[in-house]
Amino acid sequence: MSEQPYFDTVNAVEYYVGSARQWAFFHQKAMGFNLKAYSGPETGVRDRVSYLMEQGNINLVFTSFLNHDSPIAEHVKLHGDGVRDISLKVPNIDETSEYVKKRGVVKPGKVETIKGDFGRMKKSVIPAYGDTIHSLVDLSEYDDKVPPGFEPSNIREKSSGLKRIDHIVGNVEDRKMDSWVDYYIRGMGFEQLVTFDDKDISTEYSSLRSKVVQYNDRSIVFPINEPALGLKKSQIQEYLDYYNSPGVQHIALETDNIIKTVTDLKQRGVEFLYTPAKYYDTLAEHVGNIDEDIEKLKELYILVDRDEYGYLLQIFTKPMGDRPTFFYEIIQRKGARSFGKGTFKALFESIEREQARRGNL
Ligand code: FE2
Questions:
Q1: How far, in Å, is the centroid of ligand 1 from the Cα of 329?
Q2: Which CATH architecture best describes the domain 9-155?
Q3: Spacing, Cα 114 to ligand 1 middle (Å)
Q4: Residue 41 Cα, ligand 1 centroid: separation in angstroms?
Q5: CATH class of the structural domain 162-358
Q6: Distance from Cα 252 to the centre of ligand 1, integer Å
Q7: Pairing of strands 112-116, 82-89
Q8: How far is the CA of 101 from the centre of ligand 1 (A)?
Q9: Neighbouring C-alpha atoms within 13 Å toward the C-beta of 48
Q10: Domain residues of the chain, as ranges?
Q11: Which letter does DSSP use for residue 42 in this model?
């Protein structure tokens, strides 16, 4: 990147959920996140509770409402449990705001200064797809211990080996993908990474189109999906129907040892999508030599894909909430820079089996 970065990395992802305590408990016990901080009536915040969870460089915040007329309650009623805020760390909020404003596509909100126990945090909000937002957070005058209004907590949990966020995927309406790609590129200075065409990502029944934007040497990676017409309902359309708007479909969490991580997550109770045994019969032909034992991958349902740079291993969880909307991907990269184009078909067939069981195919 020639100019200095205006956005550093994903700071945190905040979810609005029906019960923050239960989401936090699940991420702690089943996924190995530490409880880093808590905010609620006990810390002087009257209308909500939030749990900040941390593993590696991944920061997740689970927030729920205490009053029925809260906008958080509205969000949960409309969308179910889901991602509200993909917060981005910026080196200098005034410069980033100015830069975004000048580009004339995205309107950042007023810069707010929030005083806390650890200094001054500066923040501005820009809208994204659906009810999703990006809080731009400047921590240059803030000791990054815990956010304002939060109390540090030290509940440590055995890590499952998750290190960082690899990418965060948004689902948008049919024919809206290009305008959202443009929003990030023209509006925020992102670059397009790869394109898939319709034919690449389709099964007998349903299909999608996907484009990927990135910033700061892939510190921030946002694939954007839209539904495409197939014989039956696209899984992206199913998402849109249940979420009632565009929103975050999945977050890919990176590990250095996917076999160890997935074995651990399964033992702790995380449920993953099933991959048929026959996928592994021809795997070696598709991906060539890999370090991992294919029998082990088959046992865990882990998918493998190769591109010109190397290969990657990945697996997808079942939806995390009650609606068939948000889920996680666990990914390990061994050189590959892509997102698993070759495994999309296997993934789709898995998702469609679940979709059919819900009577939505
Ligand atoms: Fe992904």
A1: 6
A2: Roll (3.10)
A3: 34
A4: 37
A5: alpha beta
A6: 5
A7: unpaired
A8: 30
A9: 21
A10: 9-155, 162-358
A11: G
- Cα(58) to ligand 1 centroid in Å equals 16
Quote the ligand 1 centre to 254 CA distance (angstroms).
11
Q: Judge if 9-155 and 162-358 fold alike in CATH terms.
A: yes
Instruction: Say how many Å lie between the CA of residue 42 and the centre of ligand 1.
Output: 38
Ligand 1 centroid to 34 CA: how many Å? 24
One digit per residue, the tens of pLDDT, for the chain of length 361 reads 446 799 999 999 999 999 999 999 999 999 999 999 999 999 999 999 999 999 999 999 999 999 999 999 999 999 999 999 999 999 999 999 999 999 999 999 999 999 988 899 999 999 999 999 999 999 999 987 899 999 999 889 999 999 999 999 999 999 999 999 999 999 999 999 875 444 556 665 567 888 999 999 999 999 999 998 776 778 899 999 999 999 999 999 999 999 999 999 999 999 999 888 888 988 888 889 999 999 999 999 999 998 888 999 999 999 999 999 999 999 999 999 888 877 766 666 777 778 888 888 7
Starting at the edge strand that comes first in sequence, how are the strands of the sheet with 220-228 ordered?
A: 191-195, 207-215, 220-228, 162-171, 247-255, 327-334, 310-316, 303-307
Q: State the distance from the centre of ligand 1 to the C-alpha of 330, rounded, in angstroms.
A: 8
Place of tokens 């729920």: 64
pTM exceeds 0.85, yes or no: yes
Residue 260, token pair as written in the block? 């160890």
| 15 CA distance to ligand 1 middle (Å) | 18
